[in-house]
Amino acid sequence: MFGAKRNTNETLNRVNSGKGKNIAKIAVVIVILLVLVSESYYSIQEEEQAVVCTFGSPKAVTTPGLHFKIPFIQTVTKVNTTIQGFSIGYHSTGEEADALMITSDYNFIFVDFYAEYRVTDPVKALYASQDPELVLKNIAQNCIRTTIGSYSVDSVLTTGKNEIQSNIKQMILDKLENYDIGIQLVNITIQDATPPTTEVENAFKEVETAKQGKETALNNANKYRNEQIPGAEAEADKILQDAEATKQERINEANGQVARFNSMYQEYVKYPDVTKKRMFYEAMEDVLPEIKVIIQGKDGSTNTILPLDSFVSEEASDNAFGKSTTDQEADKEDNRDGL
Fold this sequence. Notes:
Elements: H1 2-38, E1 41-44, E2 48-54, E3 57-61, E4 65-68, E5 74-80, E6 84-88, H2 96-99, E7 100-102, E8 108-119, H3 122-127, H4 132-148, H5 153-157, H6 161-179, E9 183-194, H7 198-270, H8 272-287, E10 293-296, E11 302-306, H9 311-320, H10 325-338
Antiparallel strand pairs: 1-4, 2-3, 2-5, 6-8, 7-8, 8-9, 10-11
């Protein structure tokens, strides 16, 4: 009875042992399958790219989403393609060697930069250099010092910052193209530029304040000029118009004098002696306006020679009152007889 019971227990132990081994095998298979499944796919985000390496041969995968690979044969390395950056300088944090530079006029200055870059070729970014960011930083430092060394301290501190940034960026882009390490410079900017001592910094601040005062004065002067120019132009137009009117008046007066002279000349040609005497008497009347010349004839009659009216004006008056040419000639004869 006891022997039968012992046989039954041994049988049960053999059965339980077999079941345990089967469960362990199943568990191992499941684990292997899970590992294979997990190693058979990978996902790429929008801001990433992947490099799939098959037996040492890399290939870039740029499409976002879920992708499959051969487990244990293909390896995947993800690369961040967003814009990244690093600082150059910032002497306040202890990196004085990077920030301290010398200008073309042999002045020392602290200049802080910030560079931004992004990965353009993930394969080259991983395998063309050991640390592409370090390579970019060294290139940037070289270009920065070369460029700062060609500008004066005034340009670096004030008006030349934009030009300096543009030149540095172009130099870095040219060198990165030659190195071809799979990254591209996006932008580089001057964050701050300060003299190495407080005294020099205060002096530059005073210079900048003076420049701003100069700009303010120039703006005020331009404003005053713009306000005064319309009035001055109006005054100039008035002066020109007055001058034109005076010119026309003088021309008319000269034409009248010419006409008077021609009229006198015509009379002179006709009667030279009489005209000379009359012109003499007119001149004497102008010189001595109070003089009176009276001539008494043998018959006791008297004729007043001075003062007398200009024969030119008489002729003009006669024409104005409508005397005929014959009447005018008769008046001239009377005048000659009187003389």
